[in-house]
Amino acid sequence: MAAASLGELLCLNGPINNKSIMATTSDIKNGLCIHYNHDIFQVVEFLHVKPGKGPAFVRTKLKSLTSGKVIDNTFSAGHKIDQVRVERREFQYLYKDDTGFIFMDNNTFDQISIEEKLISNSGLMKEGMNIEILINAENEEPLTCDLPASIVLEITYTEPGIKGDTATNTLKAATVETGAEIRVPLFINTGDFVKIDTSNGAYMERVKM
Questions:
Q1: Residue burial 26-50, b: 16+ Cβ < 10 Å; e: rest
Q2: Do the Cβ atoms of 64 and 50 come closer than 8 Å?
Q3: Going edge to edge, which strands form the sheet with 181-185?
Q4: Higher pLDDT residue, 22 or 118?
Q5: 164 pLDDT band (50/70/90 cuts)?
Q6: CB 1 within 8 A of CB 44
Q7: pTM above 0.90?
Q8: Rounded Cα distance, 170 and 144, in Å
Q9: Which of 146, 170, 185 marks a domain boundary?
Q10: Total domain count for the chain?
Q11: Residue 178: which CATH number?
Q12: In terms of domains, do 118 and 175 share one?
């Protein structure tokens, strides 16, 4: 999802105050939400195509904000879309229970639950960390949440490192403090802190704490 301040994104989902706000494919960008096929999707990739022959079009990759499913879709250039307000709000991750992951609104202290399927790499979330959650402003429904771009976690178990081996192209399994398993270079040891890319769970670097 494209980065944004704690403000509003425009999301295609129907009328606002009984009046539709219209846009076209020229407004498509990463992070934009659209109402498509009776669901709310977020644009995760897009490409404007102008072929030598035939009409222009926009090729997109869309992620459902209700199921997490990713689909490909092509829109003809100039295709009209309706929009609805969606807001980003900052929440604190509290804990996980049978209903899902529990978060608290940092401004109102209200708590909400979000299903695991709506959170990418949820296993990297650490209790107490702040998360931005995308809220449908029309019905206050949480749609998805974004972890920080990277997070520093402690390695709680991995096979002993090889002294003097600083190669990063050979990886081994390691468990971090949240219980998630990642792959790290051979020189990483239990007790080390590492920076992790939350978009794919990949090791980035060792961090001195």
A1: eebeebbbbbbeeebbbbeebeeee
A2: no
A3: 181-185, 171-176, 150-158, 193-197, 202-207
A4: 118
A5: low
A6: yes
A7: no
A8: 34
A9: 146
A10: 3
A11: 2.40.50.140
A12: no
